Amino acid sequence: MSQLKYRRVLLKLSGEALAGEQKTGIDPATVKRICAEIGLVLDMGLEVALVIGGGNIFRGLSASARGMDRSSADYMGMLATVLNALAVQDVLEKLHHPTRVLSAIAMQEICEPYIRRRALRHLEKGRVVICAAGTGNPYFTTDTAAALRGMELRCEAIIKATKVQGVYDKDPQKHADAVMFKRISYSEALARQLGVMDATAITLAQENRVPILVCSMFDGCIQRVVCGEDEGTIVSDETNTPA
Q1: What is the pTM of this model?
Q2: Which of 61, 92, 216, 224 has the lowest tally of Cβ within 10 angstroms?
């Protein structure tokens, strides 16, 4: 295996990823599998901050579309991310990786408040920092929270681990002729609305020149990405390149 290309990354996981085949809730076997993948890069010395969505438990945007007050729905979604963060923390700790959950919404009995300097110290000490409860504000997605925390914590890349291999021109699970990009620019990803991350997150990464690396969450893909190997899709200022 190659040497690490990055020293510190922000890893974004969707809440749905934790549900496995169940589609909703938290599947312990799937969480263990994901944490084992994260453990591969932690063993190499990579500093990792995590942001996990809450869509497997509650999606604020979809609830809002069904008539719930948007702010209330978003706060419920933020609380869902805390449940997921605690589940991942439990498994990582059992794998002997020291972990801290830092929440943007104060709940001192179960996790620390998110304080940027405290989070940086945890990372420097080799602890996995799981940033929960989004930004602490409604109307912001966990994609945006991931980009924001990535900038705050001086991460050198944002890795979005998904169920597919990278960024495609259309949904590969619905279209057999979907083409995957090896490299695509921020502006093209925004213009084509490819669903890499939401527009605010991509723009924030673009303004700070932090690459977004999209790859599968399984089969050692995250490990190969952080070593700079030809895996997944890189979203940056570079020219678009189909696979």
Answers
A1: 0.92
A2: 61
Residue 118 host element (H or E): helix 116-124
Residue-by-residue pLDDT tens, the chain, 243 positions: 579 999 999 999 999 999 988 888 999 999 999 999 999 999 999 999 999 999 999 876 777 778 889 999 999 999 999 999 999 999 999 999 999 999 999 999 999 999 999 999 999 999 999 999 999 999 999 999 999 999 999 999 999 998 888 999 888 878 888 899 999 999 999 999 888 899 999 999 999 999 999 999 999 999 999 999 989 999 998 755 555
What CA–CA distance (Å, rounded) separates 225 from 217? 10
DSSP 136-162: SSTT--HHHHHHHHHHHTT-SEEEEEE
The dihedrals phi and psi of 181, each to the nearest 5 degrees, come to: -90, 140
- Write down all domains in the chain, each with its CATH number in brackets: 8-242 (3.40.1160.10)
Of 106, 140, 142, the closest CA to residue 14 belongs to 142
Q: Residue 235 belongs to what H/E stretch?
A: strand 233-236
Contact 196, 202 (CB under 8 A): yes
Q: Could you please report the per-residue DSSP string of 48-97? A: EEEEE--TTT--HHHHHHTTS-HHHHHHHHHHHHHHHHHHHHHHHHHTT-
Whole-number pLDDT of residue 210: 97
